[in-house]
Every structure is written in structure tokens, then in C-alpha cells.
């Protein structure tokens, strides 16, 4: 039934629908102009990574969220590579990486440190102890490892959970959106025929 509804909205068998006007996604020209993506320019021309359908958007959302959390820098190029490899919607994957931005990153990093610390069973905020006579370099390295280690573990957990949640949310939201459009079309068709919606189903 869900597939039939998608086909009624978009008359092709793959369920491709027009991008909603309220959804602002990176344009093809913007992604192709990205210097990090130029080596993959020939792959960006594939129509498979530009189709707006349920599976492509769900994959793009999941991969973009994973890259946004798990990749420390250049998340958009990594998300684009993931999208090309998985035939996901590339603009959605690129947009999803902005889950981490200058406004959200401090909060995400603090929460990632707390989650990662609990995940690895870290005691007293220390992964390993330095010798009493350790120099400044050893102390700096130790401080970096003690802080970055649990934080990245937490980010990896966020990446996996976020990707799964994004994938499921798109599938659920897509079905609800398609159902709303289907019902709206039924009401419009019933109003055009001059009968209340739902009465026509009882006819033989």
C-alpha cells in the first residue's frame, strides 16, 4: 500500500518525488565547486546521488549524521564519498553533517566526553597515570589522550545511534508525508466529484 501511494504521488516506479520547497539543500553547483570534492567530480554527475526518494534520503541522512559526529573535520567531503558509495542522496548527506556546527559542538563534545567516559569505565578522569617526574611534553600528551580518548568514543556512539535514528525517522516521516498527500488528493478528487471523501470506496 505504501509503495502504491508513492507511485500515485510520483508516477515512476522508484518513488521519486519533487524536493519540497521548504527543504533547503546544497545545490549541485555548490558541491561540485568544493575543492575537496573535485577528485570525485565524475561520480557527482551520477543521477543516482541526486534522486529525492525515500531510500536515498534515508541513506543520506544516516551517512551524513555518521560523518558529522565521527569525522573530526571535512565532514562534507566524507559524507559525499559515503553517499556516492552507497547511492544515497548526496545533498541530504551533506546537509546532515551540519548537526555539528560552532553552536552545537561545545555541548556535543561535553556530552560525548561524559558518555565515552562511562562507556570505557574511565576512573578519576584518567586513562593512564604519568610517572611523578614526567616532563611537560609527557603531561601535555597525557592530558590530550585523557580528554580526547573518551570524547571520541562518545562521538562514535553518537554517530552510530544518530545514523540509526536518522534512518528510521526518515522512513517513518516519509510514510506519514506520503499518507497526508494521498489523503489530500482523495479529498480534492472527492470534492471535484461532488461527494464526501470515503463514500466512493463503498460502491461496487
What does this structure look like?
The chain is mainly α. It has one domain. The chain is 63% helix and 0% strand. The protein is built from eight helices and no strands. α1 (2-9) packs across α8 (136-193) and α4 runs antiparallel to α5. It is elongated, with a radius of gyration of 23 Å. Mean pLDDT is 75; it is low at 1-17.
Secondary structure topology:
Blueprint: H1 2-9, H2 28-33, H3 41-44, H4 54-70, H5 75-86, H6 90-96, H7 105-120, H8 136-193
Q: What characterizes the major β-sheet?
A: none
How many helix segments? Answer: 8
How confident overall, as mean pLDDT? 75
Number of strands: 0
Percent range for β-strand residues: under 5%
Summary, kept brief:
By secondary structure, the chain is mostly helical.
State the main characteristics.
disordered N terminus; mainly alpha; 63% helix; 204 residues; DUF2062 domain-containing protein
Amino acid at each position: 500500500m505504501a509503495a502504491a501511494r508513492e507511485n500515485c504521488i510520483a508516477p515512476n516506479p522508484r518513488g521519486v518525488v519533487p524536493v519540497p520547497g521548504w527543504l533547503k539543500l546544497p545545490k549541485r553547483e555548490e558541491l561540485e565547486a568544493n575543492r575537496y570534492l573535485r577528485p570525485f567530480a565524475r561520480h557527482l554527475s551520477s543521477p543516482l546521488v541526486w534522486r529525492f526518494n525515500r531510500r536515498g534520503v534515508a541513506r543520506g541522512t544516516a551517512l551524513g549524521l555518521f560523518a558529522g559526529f565521527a569525522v573530526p573535520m571535512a565532514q562534507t567531503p566524507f559524507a559525499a564519498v559515503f553517499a556516492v558509495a552507497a547511492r544515497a542522496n548526496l545533498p541530504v548527506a551533506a546537509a546532515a553533517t551540519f548537526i555539528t556546527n560552532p553552536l552545537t559542538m561545545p555541548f556535543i563534545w561535553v556530552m560525548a566526553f561524559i558518555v565515552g567516559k562511562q562507556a570505557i569505565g574511565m576512573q578519576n578522569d584518567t586513562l593512564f597515570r604519568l610517572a611523578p617526574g614526567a616532563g611537560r611534553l609527557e603531561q601535555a600528551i597525557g592530558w590530550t589522550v585523557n580528554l580526547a580518548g573518551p570524547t571520541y568514543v562518545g562521538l562514535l556512539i553518537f554517530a552510530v545511534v544518530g545514523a540509526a535514528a536518522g534512518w528510521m525517522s526518515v522512513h517513518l516521516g516519509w510514510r506519514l508525508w506520503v499518507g497526508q498527500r494521498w489523503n489530500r488528493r482523495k479529498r480534492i478528487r472527492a470534492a471535484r466529484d461532488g461527494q464526501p471523501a470515503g463514500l466512493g470506496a463503498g460502491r461496487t
